[in-house]
Amino acid sequence: MKIKWLRLCYFSTFWNISDILLLVVxxxxxxx
Length: 32
Prior knowledge:
The chain is mainly alpha-helical. Helix content is about 85%, strand content about 0%. It contains 1 helix and no strands.
């Protein structure tokens, strides 16, 4: 049970970081 929750937390934080990076890139004017 704990492993599943740890994985969910890890993936959620990973996607949050990726979203923040995308926002920063868009604000700087770069397009992917």
